[in-house]
Amino acid sequence: MKSLKIRQATVADVVPLSGLIRRTIRVSNSKDYDQKSIDMLCAIFESEPVAGRIENELILLCFMGTELVGTVGLRDNYLRSMFVDRGYQGRGLGKMLVSKIEEEARQRAIPEMMLHSSLTAREFYLALGYEFVELQTYPEGPFVLMRKPLE
Ligand SMILES: CC(C)(COP(=O)(O)OP(=O)(O)OC[C@H]1O[C@@H](n2cnc3c(N)ncnc32)[C@H](O)[C@@H]1OP(=O)(O)O)[C@@H](O)C(=O)NCCC(=O)NCCS
User: Fold this and answer.
1) Based on the number of CB atoms within 10 Å of its own CB, is 1 exposed (0-12), middle (13-18) or buried (19 or more)?
2) Centroid of ligand 1 to alpha carbon of 117 (angstroms)
3) Residue nearest atom 21 in ligand 1 by C-alpha distance
4) Which regions of the chain are under pLDDT 70?
């Protein structure tokens, strides 16, 4: 069985990380967003902006063996960039990554986690205790602002 490993991203991870995110957007989010939105979302996660994110926020990577299969980020009190490769979804990896980032937020004395959920991930976050705040509209499409107090 392949071993599961979680570690912080470095600039050396830019290309596979950008690839994982853009692949997952195209495969998993296209049922909820039109092609224009998908293209705009993929542009946000090209290598260059991803490199900027790695420098400016905490980004965790999840590996199955040597394969990058999931990621999540934390910037201030916002959980960001949560993606699990389509072939590994539904196995608890997303839940585990959220739990790790919440743990990190608690250590930073962040009282409440916020996030902008895709329409695709809304039920996932509800299952993890996040509550609906409001639906917001961006050029890339609609996203759901959600919150969860951290004890
Ligand atoms: C959303 C996403 C990160 C979830 O990751 P995952 O590894 O598939 O989720 P998990 O297997 O850890 O699921 C955790 C819980 O959420 C529930 N859940 C996950 N997706 C769900 C869905 N679409 N509808 C209802 N429940 C869902 C699971 O049943 C599980 O519940 P349990 O703990 O009671 O068993 C992943 O599906 C993904 O990358 N989606 C596409 C990209 C995306 O939209 N990312 C979010 C950007 S804001």
Assistant:
1) exposed
2) 11
3) 124
4) none
